[in-house]
Write a structure and sequence with these properties.
With about 140 residues, the chain is of the alpha+beta class. The chain has one domain: 3-Layer(aba) Sandwich (Rossmann fold). The protein is built from 5 helices and 4 strands; from the N terminus they run ααββαβαβα. The protein has a 4-stranded mixed beta sheet with strand order 2-4-1-3, sandwiched between helices. Helix 1 packs across helix 5.
């Protein structure tokens, strides 16, 4: 999730791009959905895929240092964490999906430093997105995952 137009709000998009660039053999076991500012438009595709786990990555204001990463559940995400530029609140979309799919959900928030319109992503956010993508890839390919 995210917006390419608002500096560090691109964090989730950068993670998705890193994952999509992996060789096919490293992309087994998961699918990347790029929701940008309207992830609710993908609920039909996600439902059809019928995942066992959903990991949503977005920039999120949770009071951390720019580039900090926080993993949270829906309850924590709904209580005091601000996700950026989406037409439908993230928690509403995820609760809808959970009503349709029996799966686990994790929300990964990356603390933005700058959300100015028309500005590029900071190097800090680019590095954080690389770390998150690597962590997701490793978690999917862990023995027993």
């Amino acid at each position: 999730m995210g917006s390419e137009l608002r500096a560090d709000d691109i964090a989730g998009i950068l993670v998705a791009r890193h994952l999509k660039k992996l060789p096919a053999r490293e992309r087994t076991g998961f699918r990347v959905f790029l929701g940008e500012t309207a992830p609710e438009n993908l609920t039909g595709e996600i439902r059809k895929y019928n995942p066992t786990h959903i990991v949503v990555v977005d920039s999120a204001e949770f009071g951390g240092k720019a580039g900090a990463v926080a993993v949270m559940d829906i309850a924590r995400a709904a209580g005091g964490v601000t996700f950026s530029t989406h037409s439908l609140p993230l928690t509403i979309m995820l609760r809808y999906l959970l009503a349709l799919i029996d799966c686990e959900v994790a929300i990964v928030g990356i603390q933005p430093g700058n959300l100015e319109f028309g500005e590029p992503a900071s190097k800090t956010i680019e590095r954080a997105a690389e770390r998150v993508a690597r962590a997701i890839r490793e978690a999917v390919h862990e023995p027993g995952a």
